[in-house]
Amino acid sequence: MKKMMVMMVMMVVSEASIIEKTCKETPDFNLCVSLLHSDPRGSSADTSGLALILVDKIKGLATKTLNEINNLYKKRPELKYALDECSKRYKTILKADVPEAIEAISKGVPKFGEDGVIDAGVEASVCEERFEGKSPLTSLTNSMQKISNVTKAIVRMLL
């Protein structure tokens, strides 16, 4: 019984150290650790698996942002031009960038995965720039840029 408990503790320490070791190589250690520990797959993932988890986080945030954009059309019709641009940008993340990153990382071609991840951050930035003055999407845009930067750092470890 004691031996089994020691082995379980060693596994947990080993799993945590893989996430922590990987996240130390990213621009935002705390965000990286938080995102990876929030997904049950993180505890048993290798570097490619960690990158795929983060791509899923990009997908989730893009979906959340697109839903917020759709809500803003009703609440803030004066922002239609900027919201149209943002809608287009976030649909690109969901329909092009995320699938490109998933396929490339899964097939062992991380360079193309990196391109998709970088583009997700660029698309979010372009969306933010379309607002004249205060954007109602700044928080979500900043989150997308941060997650994209963390993901990019992990994908680069695969190169």
UniProtKB/TrEMBL annotation:
InterPro entries (alphabetical): C/VIF1, Invertase/methylesterase_inhib, PCW_Enzyme_Inhibitor, Pectinesterase_inhib_dom
Family, as annotated: Belongs to the PMEI family.
SMART domains in UniProt: PMEI (SM00856)
Leader sequence residues: 1-16
NCBIfam families linked: PME_inhib
Protein name: Pectinesterase inhibitor domain-containing protein
Annotated Pfam families: PMEI
Limits of the Pectinesterase inhibitor domain: 14-154
UniProt entry keywords in alphabetical sequence: Disulfide bond, Signal
Domain of life, source organism: Eukaryota
Entries under SUPFAM superfamilies matching the protein: Plant invertase/pectin methylesterase inhibitor (SSF101148)
GO molecular function, one term: enzyme inhibitor activity
